[in-house]
Amino acid sequence: MAQTIRLHETGGAEVLKLETTEVGTPGPGQARVRHSYVAVNFIDIYFRTGRYPMPLPNGLGSDAVGIVEAVGEGVSCVRPGDRVGYLLGPQGAYADVRLMPAEVLIPLPPEVSDSTAATLMMKGMTAQYLFRQVFPLQGGETILYHAAAGGVGLIACQWARALGVTMIGTVSTDEKAAIAKAHGCSHTIVTSRENIAERVREITGGKGVPVVYDSVGKDTLAASLDCLQPRGVLVSNGTSSGPVVIDTMQLAMKGSLWVTRPAMLHYATPRANMLAMADELFGLVKAGHIRSEPSRVYPLKDAAEAHRSLESRATTGATVLVP
User: How far apart (Å, rounded) are the C-alpha atoms in residues 161 and 185?
Assistant: First the structure.
């Protein structure tokens, strides 16, 4: 049996309920994983509120780390006793133990602790595909990154520094600005009192930036477009403030701009892609370029409280649940 957070309807954090569920033995191609840490991501809120539809009732959560307890027929990529993490597969990571498709499990190197890995499976891999695949950074660029003190943001700050990229990061408070700078962000813009586009033009000598990574969405769209150089790229990798609606004529008028809305699935599959992404990420951790630990830790049963904290914008860094 497993302790699992489930929801039977969409809505506020109160719809998250701790339930006892049957787990069973792994079938062909499956592995049973006992979790040590479960990550909480903003995308979980999208599923909980119904912005991203899914069948109900259902579990919640997309990534976790733990140990393989058993494997089913035909599984050779992992063995019982292996430490693993994952970020793909069905919803349902908010649990102490569950069955998973073995092909999505990523072996963890001994140098990377479970607590560190829990902050990196979705968030670190997101930084990887944003910086190394969606708009491949070579070093020397100046970029704009929104929500620089968030879970992905603090990893992005460190990755940018390791690449030799000048990162301009937006934050909501001076306290968050200090945290982002301590992690490697070159310049910060405090959105509660500074104009984003004006500051970017000031920092770049009027040129703007070749790429903007925008996970905020509706509230920052206009500013993001105004920060771009001609033929620049807006990477719309989230919509925490609301959906993005773009008038394509504005893209032409502002400099023949490009917009992409990437999804992890299309960059982390097939399995070889996912393992290569993880290898680069873990390599930076082992080299000391990326340091990451949870900033907030909640018991599994308090998943609703974790969601409330994340929605309030009170958090920095990564939030995790402990079964």
Answer: 7
Q: Where are the domains of the chain?
A: 2-119+293-322, 123-260
CB 312 within 8 Å of CB 296: no
Q: What mean pLDDT is predicted for residues 111-137?
A: 97
**What is residue 237's predicted lDDT score, i.e. its pLDDT?**
94
CA distances from 195 to 145, 149, 188, 211, 305 (A): 15, 18, 12, 18, 33
Task: Show the CA angle centred on residue 323, arms to residues 74 and 290, nearest 5°.
Answer: 80
> Cα 66–72–33 angle (5° rounding)?
10
Under DSSP, is residue 299 helix (H, G, I), strand (E, B) or coil?
strand
Spatial contact of 168 and 214, defined as CB atoms under 8 Å apart: no
Residue 197 phi/psi, 5° resolution? -65, -40
State pLDDT tens for residues 38-73.
Answer: 999 989 999 999 999 999 999 999 999 999 999 999
Q: Classify domain 123-260 at the CATH superfamily level.
A: NAD(P)-binding Rossmann-like Domain (3.40.50.720)
CB distance 137 to 165 below 8 Å: yes
Compute the average pLDDT of residues 134-157. 97
Could you read off the pLDDT of 164-174 as tens digits, one per residue? 999 999 999 99
Q: Per-residue pLDDT averaged across 165-187, rounded?
A: 97
Beta strands in the chain (DSSP E): 2-7, 17-21, 30-40, 58-59, 64-71, 83-86, 97-101, 106-107, 142-145, 166-171, 187-190, 209-214, 228-236, 258-260, 294-299, 318-322
pLDDT score of 315 more than 80: no
How far is CA 120 from each of CA 239, 242, 284, rounded to the nearest angstrom? 21, 25, 12
pLDDT tens digits, 27-45: 999 999 999 999 999 899 9
CATH architecture of the domain with range 2-119+293-322: Alpha-Beta Complex (3.90)
Dihedral pair phi/psi, residue 313, rounded to 5°: 65, 20
Q: What is the pTM of this model?
A: 0.94
